[in-house]
Specification:
The chain is mainly alpha-helical and 350 residues long. It is built from 19 helices and no strands. α2 packs across α16 (283-293), α3 (58-73) runs parallel beside α19 and α9 (148-160) packs antiparallel against α10 (166-183). The chain is globular. The structure holds inosine diphosphate ribose and magnesium ion (2 copies). Inosine diphosphate ribose is lined by residues 57-59, 96, 98-101, 124, 127, 129-133, 136, 254, 297, 299-300. It is found in: Chromosome; Cytoplasm; Mitochondrion matrix; Nucleus. It catalyses: alpha-NAD(+) + H2O = ADP-D-ribose + nicotinamide + H(+).
């Protein structure tokens, strides 16, 4: 499709929901054989099963808050978004939220709260969370703002409502940038895509705040996301890469640092057919299946990879039968069209 086409917006938001819903099955599993993944996905296509419903988790619940807030406020409004997070959590607390972030969401519900970023700063002895909860909901920022500086700035602020550690919010910046570039068609040149992300993250991680946080967090490189993106590039260049190597080089965990570069790798790796994936699968299906086979934080990695891949392949690549099984997929499709309008309105206005 053409850059920033409606199909790409719909693909991004719908595939993110799919990744979350189908990935929920394996979240936290240490090893997931590809056979088991394919069985799970084939099961979705079995019409005799009637309407199976896979529920979405916190990943989609919070993404929906971001989408609704951006649409209702025609841009980023921290008070409004904070209120929506708090309200959503109190209405459905059982969506599988991270154990730390629950504290933040409870504090955000307080009418006396003056600074909406303060509860996030209080997390983990004042260091803030490095979880991937900011990154998992970052895609809508790329679908609302046409200019990269806006995407970076608002993805960062939107993440800081719950994740004040640079390793948390910079994961959100990276994820939003990947969706932004994919929406422009940048995945047609994978080498340039990864190089561009590295260049952008060099700048993001060069900022003083980021460096200060990292000093606390032992054993990481000075620019941790850049270092991981270099590993992504090395793995991309190799013919054969085992699942074990991907996990040990990039991670599959709940930290943004151990999941956002992994999700980006899943998308890049699945641009081509792979012999351990069905020939009948297109790139989007390959990406989701591969993300699940890594195990670990499967709903979140598949959700993030889904958003990036969906923005590349477009909504036509999303299997109808998968979509019908996933709670919230129809809603995501409709909201994507509204974000498309906002994005193009913003691009004319500025
Ligand atoms: O990041 P967050 O919203 O969790 C998102 C994940 C996704 O996989 C969702 O699908 C859902 O399952 O949860 O929630 P947080 O509670 O902020 O962070 C997640 C976890 O990371 C925490 O519960 C901690 O175990 C860990 N963590 C930390 N541990 C020690 N020190 C995050 N930051 C720290 C830290 O600074
Ligand atoms: Mg989840
Ligand atoms: Mg998860």
């Amino acid at each position: 499709g053409t850059p920033a086409s409606m199909s790409r917006f719909r693909g991004a938001l719908v595939a993110a929901v799919l990744g979350d819903c189908v990935g929920g099955e394996f979240e936290g599993a240490e090893e997931v054989p590809m056979e088991t993944v394919l069985q799970h996905l084939n099961g979705l296509e079995d019409e005799t099963k009637g309407n199976c419903v896979l529920e979405y988790s916190d990943d989609t619940a919070m993404t929906r808050c971001v989408v609704q807030s951006l649409l209702n406020r025609s841009g980023y409004d921290q008070q409004d978004l904070a209120r929506r997070f708090a309200k959503e959590y109190s209405a459905s607390p059982g969506r599988g939220y991270g154990s730390g972030v629950i504290q933040v969401l409870k504090k955000l519900a307080s009418p006396q709260l003056v600074d909406v970023y303060q509860p996030a700063r209080d997390q983990f002895n004042g260091r803030g969370s490095f979880g991937n909860g900011g990154a998992m909901r970052a895609a809508p920022f790329a679908l609302a703002f046409p200019n990269l500086p806006d995407v970076k700035r608002f993805a960062c602020l939107g993440a800081m409502l719950t994740h004040s550690c640079s390793l948390g919010y910079n994961g959100a910046v990276l994820q939003a940038m990947a969706v932004h570039l994919s929406l422009q068609g940048a995945l047609c040149l994978p080498q340039q895509f990864i190089s561009r992300l590295i260049t952008e993250m060099e700048e993001v991680e060069g900022e003083e705040e980021a460096l200060r946080d990292v000093v606390f967090l032992l054993k990481e490189a000075e620019k941790p996301f850049c270092e991981r993106l270099h590993r992504v590039r090395d793995l991309m260049d190799r013919n054969k890469v085992s699942i074990e190597e991907v996990i040990s080089e990039l991670g599959n965990g709940i930290a943004a640092l151990h999941s956002v570069p992994t999700a980006i790798f899943c998308v890049l790796h699945c641009l081509q057919p792979r012999d351990y994936l069905p020939e009948s699968y297109g790139g989007l299906e390959r990406t989701i299946a591969y993300s699940l086979a890594l195990g670990g934080d499967t709903d979140t990695i598949a959700c993030m990879a889904g958003a990036i891949a969906g923005a590349h392949y477009g909504v036509e690549a999303v299997p109808q039968r998968w979509m019908r099984c996933c709670e919230g997929a129809e809603d995501a499709d409709m909201n994507a069209a509204r974000l498309h309008a906002l994005y193009h309105q913003t691009s004319q206005g500025s």
